[in-house]
Amino acid sequence: MSESPADPRFELAGQLTQARLLRHEGRYDEAITHLHELRAELQRAGLRSGLLFEELAESLASSGRSDEAKGYFALAFVELSKDPKFVDKESARLERIARLGDVDSDGHEGTEGSAQ
Asked: CA-to-CA distance for 88 and 54, rounded, in angstroms?
């Protein structure tokens, strides 16, 4: 199946790219706000995105909000580990996400609760 501008995955990818650019420019609050709004849209549609959780965690961590980021890294790990292609092709990235989210290989958090 090819992606097109009408494909929700294509739109999500664009929105995540925009947030990533804001983060790289040091505009953390704007990136975080954008990602929270995008998360709310997905929730209304009954959807979750591990990539969104990962970018939100990265933005929070970059802004110095490491404790808050940990819960989103944990959520990212849980969602992304469900995707066999991601697990196969991005194993080092997934391991990093798990470490930053303080989760074991089964997705269980080592200490505190998550950011759900």
From this structure: 17
The span from the CA of 10 to the CA of 5, in Å, is 6
Count: domains in the chain: 1
CATH number at 76 reads 1.25.40.10
Residue 21 resides in a domain: yes
Predicted TM-score (pTM) of the model is: 0.83
The angle formed by the CA atoms of residues 99, 112 and 109, to the nearest 5 degrees, is 45
Residue with tokens 């790219």: 17
Q: What is the pLDDT along the chain (116 residues), one digit of tens a residue?
A: 444 444 566 688 899 999 999 999 999 999 999 999 999 989 988 889 999 999 999 999 999 999 999 999 999 999 999 999 999 999 999 999 999 999 986 656 654 444 54
